[in-house]
Amino acid sequence: MTTTTLAVLVPLLPALGALAGLLLGRRAPGFVRPLAVLPTLTAGVLAVLVAVRQGGGAPVDAVRELTPTGSVPIELALHIDGFAALVAILVGLVATCVQLYSTGYLRDDPRYPSYAAIVSLFTSAMLLVVYSGDLMVLLVGWEIMGICSYFLVGHYWETPEARAASLKAFLVTKLGDVPFLIGLFALATETGSFRITRILGAVADGGLDHPTLIALLLLAGVAGKSAQFPLHTWLPDAMAGPTPVSALIHAATMVAAGVYFIARLLPVFTASRAALIVLALMAAVTMAGSALAALAQDDIKRVLAYSTIGQLGYMTGALAVGERGAAVFHLLAHGAFKALLFLAAGVIIHAAGTNSLAAMSRMPGLKSRVPDAYWTMTVALLALAALPPFSGFFSKEAVLGAAEHAATGHEGPVPGAAGWIVLVAGLFTALLTAAYATRLWLLTFHSPLARAAEEPGPLAEAAAGQEAAAEEARAHGHGKQPAVMNLVLWILAIPSLAFGLAVGTIPDWFDGHSLNPTLTTSVLGTGLALVGGLVTYGTWRHTTAMALRVPLGAVAVNRQEGAAAVEAEAITAHEPAYGDIAAAPDPADPGRLLLGPLHRHAVSGFHLDAVYSALFVRPVQLAAKVVRFLDREVVESYVRAAAVLPRWFGAAVRRAQTGNVQTYLSALFAGSAVLALAVVVLAHLNAGS
C-alpha cells in the first residue's frame, strides 16, 4: 500500500467510524465503543506508518483537481512533511486516549453514542487539516471542528452554563473565521492558487503585493481558533463540556489548528515585519494575562484552560520570531502533558464530585484515593512548569532560545523588537506558570486540614469527623475509578516525561535548526520557574499558618459544614459541570496573597467579557430591540391597517344595506340632486372664468 493511500485512510477511518456510530448507536449499542476506539486507534497506527515512510525527508505530495473553476482551482491535495507527520501522530495518540478514557468516564451517559461519534468526526477534521495540501480542503476541516466543538462543549445542554459556553465558542471562533476566509481568498488571488506548495513558491519569488493585510486577516482566524488575545475568552467557558472533550480540544485539535496553520504558511507572515510585531504582541499579552488569570481561578479545569492559552502563546511567540520548529516542538510536548493534566483532573473530579480547588482543599485523603492521578498529574505539572528533564523544559527552552536569538541581533526577516517582546514575556510567564502549577498541586493534594489531622488536638478530631463523612459519601458515591481511565494516564505520562529527550532528532523532521536549550535561557527560565514554585510554596505555608490561627471551634464547625455540603453534592453528582458547587474561598489559597489587588480582576479574566458585553453584546441586543419594535409597532401597523380598513369599509357598506326600497330611492334621489347641484356650480364657475 502506497504512502499516499495510507495518508488518505488516516482522516477517512475516524470519519467512517463516526458515521457508523451514529447509524448503529441505538440499533446495536454493543458496537458503539469498538466503533469509537478502533477506527481512531487504527488511524493513529497508520499515521505512525506514514511518518516512518516519510522519515523526515522529502514531503509526500499528491494532488487531484476537483473540477475546473474558471479561476483559482480547488484541488484535493496532500502535503505531508516532517512536522505534519508528527502532528498527525499526536492527534491520533490523544484522540485514542480520549476515546478509551471516555468509555469509563461516560459509561453511564445515555448520550455516549452521539458523543463518541462527534469526537471521531472532530479527530477526522483535525487530521484533514494536518495532511491537507490545499487551503480550501483545509478550510473544510477547520469549519467541521468548529461545529463539532459546539456540540461537544454543549454536551450537557440541560445546564445553562453548557448552552452558553457552546454558543459563545461557536460565535467567537466564527467571528475570527470571517476575516480568515477573506484572507484566504486574497492570498489565493495574489498567488494564483490554493495549493500550499504553490503559495510558498510564489511568496519566495516575491509574489505577494499586500503581505501585511493578508497576514493580519489570517491572524484574526488564528486568534479565534487558537484562543489568542483578544479572541480567547471562549476557551475557559468551554470547560462546561465533559473533561475528555477539554483534553481533546486543548491538546491536539481545535486550538492547535491555528498554530499549525501559521507554521505551515510561516513565509507568508515573515514577509511582513509589521505582522510579526503584531503576532509577538498578541503572544506576549496572551502569555502573561492568561498566567495571571490561572493563578486566581478556583475551578481546576479553568486553571488548565488558562494554562493552555498561555502555552499557545509560547507557540505563537516562537512563530513570531520565525522559528516554526520550536513552535511545533512545543505543540507536540504540550499536547502530551496537557492531555494528561485534563484527564487526571477528570479522575480527581470523578472522585471528589466537584471542580472547585477550595472544596478539594477541604477533603483530606484525596491523594490516597486517586494515587494514579496524583503521580501522573505531578509529572504533567512538572512538565508544564518546564523543569528538567521533563518534556516541557526542552520545548519551552527551544522557544525562549529562538526569541533570544532574534533579540540579540540575528540578521533576517524577523525584527529584533519581536524577539525582545517574546523573550521578556516568556520569562515572566515561566515564573507565573510554575506558581500556578504549584498552587494547583498544593490545593488539590495537600490540604491544610489533612496536615492538621496528623497532630493531636481539636483540628485532628474535626478532620477525623470529616474523613468519616467522606468515607460514607464515597460508599454511596462514585467508588473506585474505572481501570481504563488510570491506564490512559500512565500512557500519556511516558511522552510527558521522555519526549524532550528526542530534542536531538526533532530538527531533522523540520527545517534542520537546532532546538537544543541555550545556556542563558535555560538558566533564566529554570531559575524563574524554581523561584515561582518556591515562592508559591512559601506563601502557601504562610497562608496555611494564618488559616490555622482561626479559633479552633470555628475552624472545626466551618470545615465540617463545608465538607458535608461538598460530599452531599458528590453523592448525587453524575458528571459535575462547571460551577455546580459554590465552595467558600479557601483561606489557605496562596493565589490571593500573591496577586494582591490584581486577584479580583484576574478571577474574571480582567473583565474582558464585560468589555465585549459593553462594546458588542449590549449594542447588538439594543439594535435587536429597536428592530423588533420597528417590526412590531411600525411594519405590523401597516399590515394590520391593510386588514382593518377594508373591514371598516365593509361594515359601513353593510349598514347601508337595509332592504328598504324607500330608503334606496331616497338615497338615489339625494345623490342625483347632489350631482345636479355640482354640475350647476361647476358650469357657473367655468362661465365666470
UniProtKB/TrEMBL annotation:
Alphabetized NCBIfam families for the sequence: NDH_I_L (TIGR01974)
Protein name: NADH-quinone oxidoreductase subunit L
Keyword Oxidoreductase in record: yes
Keywords from the named record: Membrane, Oxidoreductase, Transmembrane, Transmembrane helix
Domain of life of the source: Bacteria
InterPro entries in alphabetical order: NADHpl_OxRdtase_5_subgr (IPR018393), ND/Mrp_TM (IPR001750), NU5C-like (IPR003945), Proton_antipo_N (IPR001516)
A UniProt-annotated Pfam family: Proton_antipo_M
Domain NADH:quinone oxidoreductase/Mrp antiporter transmembrane: start-end pairs: 132-403
Transmembrane portions of the chain: 6-24, 36-56, 76-100, 112-131, 137-157, 169-188, 208-224, 245-263, 275-296, 303-321, 327-352, 373-394, 414-437, 487-507, 519-540, 664-685
The protein's Enzyme Commission number: 1.6.5.-
Subcellular location(s) per record: Endomembrane system; Membrane
Lineage, broadest ranks: Bacteria, Bacillati, Actinomycetota, Actinomycetes, Kitasatosporales
Sequence segments annotated as region (Disordered): 456-477
Lipid bilayer topology: Multi-pass membrane protein
Enzyme class label: oxidoreductase
All copies of domain NADH-Ubiquinone oxidoreductase (complex I) chain 5 N-terminal, residue ranges: 68-115
